[in-house]
């Protein structure tokens, strides 16, 4: 699959788009944050 065809989502904390990663392959539906930093800061921003 080409990089330009990968699915994208919007991070709930920083509101930036991020693309699918191989490590999220089996869990893509549950991924909500673009990074560990955003996941840790989820309560301060939301």
From TrEMBL:
InterPro entries listed in its UniProt record: UCP037205
Protein name from the UniProt record: DUF2256 domain-containing protein
Organism expressing this protein natively: Polaribacter glomeratus
């Amino acid at each position: 699959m080409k990089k330009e065809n990968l699915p994208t989502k919007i991070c709930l904390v920083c509101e930036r788009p991020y693309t699918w990663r191989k490590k999220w392959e089996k869990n893509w539906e549950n991924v909500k944050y673009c990074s560990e930093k955003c996941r840790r800061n989820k309560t301060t921003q939301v």
